[in-house]
Amino acid sequence: MKVARVVVVGQGHAPAMAAIALRRAFAPVGVEVTWVETPGEAPADAVLAGLPNLLAFHQLLGLDPAAVLRETQGCFTMGRHYVGFAGEGRDYLHGFGPVGRPIAGLPFLPFWLKARAEGLPAGFGDFAREAVAARNGRIRIAGDGETTQGLHLDARGYAALLRRQALAIGVTIRPDTAPRALVAGGAVRRIGLSDGSWVDADLVVDASEDAAILSALGTGDPVDASLSGVGRMLVGSARPLRPLPLYSHVAAHRAGWTALHPLRDRTGVAVAYDPALMSDEAAMAQLPVPLVRDPVFVPLTPRERRKPWIGNVVAIGAAAARPDPLAALDLHRLQVALTHLISLFPVRADAMPEAGIYNDELAGWSARMRDFAAVPHALNGRQGEPFWDAARARPISSDLEARIALFAARGMVAAYHQDSFAEDEWETCLLGLGVMPESWDPQVDRVDEQQVMADFRDQLAAIRADVLAMDSHEAALHRAMA
């Protein structure tokens, strides 16, 4: 018996993305998708951050890029600017693009490490075109030499756009206040609605806030996924920044961190903190810019389900995980989950061996993302502050320990499968947090130093000329929405 009826449960952008992705992928083979939409919406000030691959995923969803920007007050982003994590006065820009180019067929970083040890004044980030462009407010969104960029999106506007797209492509939407799982034979074969009716299901995608559908199968509680003592967040909005930045700004404070996420019409503001060390009033005092309205305060309980696919129910979004918010990877996690669900879409409704592979794959991807998000906590250089001292003392995965040790020894990033971040990005973050390798690949010693210096000069000149020829952020947005 083939899977012919998919039911998605939840509210907001996660169930909408799932419904659209599944409908577009499997409608040609007769799969019907029903979205049981539950009440609620994101906080009015919430902002979503998307990595560069979100733009390609939007194409798969059939979204018009101009409409996405227009209807979400969206703007481009080329990285995240971390301030104070390595210690007061220190910062680094985690840019999305590559850093440097190979020299004599060898990777760039060991040449830079050797030159730095001999007095090279240029920083590692000076060889990152996207980072240099972002700091100068420049970007290229089309044609030869297009930059690598992601998006900042208003959460409510994004959810509304996705809902309209779901309706336009034939997703049936059934609003309901309290849908419930009707379990039979270890599977959820029907979703009961408040009026006494039900929706038949071969496959259920649980995108609810509390994972109510998956929990009906008796899966137990999710595991803790905290990377620090952050347990509460202030969410608000400030006036738009001018000129419009091309990166988010994240700054450490004594009990957590603050973040600014630019949009065209406002700036999303977040203050994350440990409520045992900081009051709501003290969190307000951490605001780097004045708010335009009263903020909301939301609890943070990072958690993750080890097996998001049980029986015929797949949990995504908040139902599957609430990751530590520092790295802003919610949208990316959702995209990874949906990509794997489409590739492993079950061929039979009465037996789903795909679940085991899906759970293993998602566990791998999640572990790599958790490691990347843990780095600013584990390697922070803020001494004498209880929050940050405790963050450094938290255990990290053996994979991350090995990655840090290898990089500290010779400037090499260990390669793991299921990694969302490129080698250059790991290098940037580890260097930015103060991990300076003790040595480097000795192969670079065979390359003539004058040749290397000439190559460095060529790279820096090429980046400078390229960035000067790029558009401003505002001009690029105008062109993208035309």
If you had to describe this structure to a student in words, what would you say it looks like?
- The protein has 482 residues and is an alpha+beta fold.
- The protein folds into three domains: 5-76 and 152-226 and 302-351, FAD/NAD(P)-binding domain (3-Layer(bba) Sandwich), CATH 3.50.50.60; 94-128 and 369-471, no CATH class; 232-294, no CATH class.
- 35% of the residues lie in helices and 21% in strands.
- The chain has 15 helices and 24 strands.
- The protein has helices at 13-26, 53-61, 65-71, 108-117, 129-135, 155-168, 212-215, 280-285, 330-343, 354-378, 386-393, 398-410, 423-432, 449-468, 473-481; strands at 5-10, 32-37, 47-50, 75-77, 79-83, 91-95, 138-139, 150-154, 172-175, 180-184, 187-192, 198-200, 203-207, 223-224, 232-238, 248-253, 256-262, 267-273, 296-299, 303-304, 309-310, 313-315, 321-322, 471-472.
- A seven-stranded mixed β-sheet has the order 6-5-16-17-18-15-19.
- A hairpin with a 2-residue loop joins strand 21 (309-310) and strand 22.
- The termini are far apart.
Q: Could you report the average pLDDT, rounded to the nearest whole number?
A: 96
Task: Characterize the overall form.
Answer: globular
User: According to CATH, what is the class of the largest domain?
Assistant: Alpha Beta
Side by side, the strands of the main sheet go 6-5-16-17-18-15-19
Q: What is the CATH T-level topology of the largest domain?
A: FAD/NAD(P)-binding domain
Q: Give the % helix.
A: 25-40%
H/I helix tally: 15
Number of domains: 3
Organism: Sphingomonas rustica
Protein name: Tryptophan 7-halogenase
InterPro entries: FAD/NAD-bd_sf (IPR036188), Flavin-dep_Halogenase_NPB (IPR050816), Flavin_halogenase (IPR006905)
Pfam families: Trp_halogenase
